Amino acid sequence: MRTPGAHLWQHLAAAGADLLWRIPDIWKLPVEDVLADGSWISTVRGGRGCSVCPPQDIRVRVIEYSLDLPGRDQAER
Description:
By secondary structure, this protein is an alpha+beta fold. 12% of the residues lie in helices and 16% in strands. Strands 1-2-3 form a 3-stranded antiparallel sheet, with no helix packed on it. It has 1 helix and 3 strands, in the order H-E-E-E. The radius of gyration is 15 Å and the shape is globular. It starts with 5 loop residues before the first helix and ends in a 15-residue tail after the last strand.
């Protein structure tokens, strides 16, 4: 999936930040490599970019969880 936030992610990671972002279900992050704890490695496609910052793909670790919210019939994944 292409995302306009990919450039921001790269900029913050290059500054040495450890990043954890919650993303919506609409994003499809295919499993490329499963890790021992059940998380997996995927690739986020870079956004449109610009002449000084071309788009680049970003390898990410995906940690899936369920969030139980009061008043909802089922947990949000």
